[in-house]
């Protein structure tokens, strides 16, 4: 329950901080208003930690720059066209923006920048009421023209104006509704949800990079599932990541399988839990979380209803990896993330063969080799993929994975498992076989690598003998 008395006290502490006090004096001496706006005010009231401070003022950019120069160690005006000046004050980075009264053309997300006259008018144009509050720093006075405090108390996300107008102005706000729902643990107000469903098609004017940025922020929250449900239930997910919505497969009375959509959300939450245990105090692993969410997206495309009521999804791992790569490329994710996610999806079923029967050392080596630098993530994803309610089965799978991880540690101690190479390099292969560089060298290299993985260290002489035998059989 939000304690407003404590929240007001935290606002006072925020206003008294060295950076805020320094700026407040400078702007007051210059005859201008100054207020902290948006997220820092919201978070102070909620008792959450505040980070970057955003300010708004009636001063125009040239005046802002003139005021902050004497009290800052650096200034930048890259956002001058939008009324924003950045500065480093008391060792902290701040951004100060002139009151805005923008208008949108409904075709692009680019606003016609217009400076406003009042703080209240500036706040009304913001995305949600809980972000449309400000703290006048000279008076330490909360300004809340749209009922943000009431919505904080109720745990509700609502737009300051008609949501159809707000989302029509900037469709990215619909994605932000899902993200803030997860970030704050708030419910999205019914009228706001209805507007998202109605206007979801307008997301097409938003660049893939912007959409990717919001998806990344959503996945970086402690509970992204809340926001994902908002996206799926309003249909907005279908506009940029339809593979997730498609996971809601129909289950008829004759063919039974687990709910793939709910399973995927559970895997995501369990992956986050395992991530926190293995890598505490680290930044959220978005690639891992994407892989957890998308690991079964190949199932709808490979689903087959068998006689007797069985349902199969043969090769959904391979199909899903390809689908994920294509979709993440369209969303402009970086190459490293795309490679990691598609590789994890491709390998996510590999372990379950181990659980059915103990692997040889060669099989364990192959598992490590194929996972490469994604092994730690694969450990997490594979463990998270166990969502059975059968406790005995879950314990058996967990025990099997404990065993494979222990064997990997043992093999690593015995040999450099992560850097296994054939015992003969490319030059030696050419010398032994009397061939020139070309595809044959690559095939011979693969033969020797498989031999190394299957049988361990043989020694150069034995490796050469096996290579010659293999080569003779190719003729």
UniProtKB/TrEMBL annotation:
E.C. number: 2.7.7.72
Transmembrane segments: none
Origin: domain of life: Bacteria
InterPro entries (alphabetical): HD/PDEase_dom, HD_domain, HDIG_dom, NT_sf, PolA_pol_head_dom, PolyA_RNA-bd, tRNA_adenylyltransferase, tRNA_CCA-adding_enzyme
GO function term, MF aspect, one: metal ion binding
Pfam families associated with the record: HD, PolyA_pol, PolyA_pol_RNAbd
UniProt key word Cytoplasm: no
Cofactor requirements of the protein: Mg(2+)
Domain HD: 260-370
Key words, A-Z: ATP-binding, Magnesium, Metal-binding, Nucleotide-binding, Nucleotidyltransferase, RNA repair, RNA-binding, Transferase, tRNA processing
Stored NCBIfam families: HDIG (TIGR00277), tRNA_CCA_actino (TIGR02692)
Protein name as annotated: CCA tRNA nucleotidyltransferase
